[in-house]
Amino acid sequence: MKVRLSHIVKEYGYPNVEAFYKAFHKAETAYGDYQDSLKNWKQ
Question: What is the DSSP-derived secondary structure letter of residue 15?
Answer without folding.
Answer: S
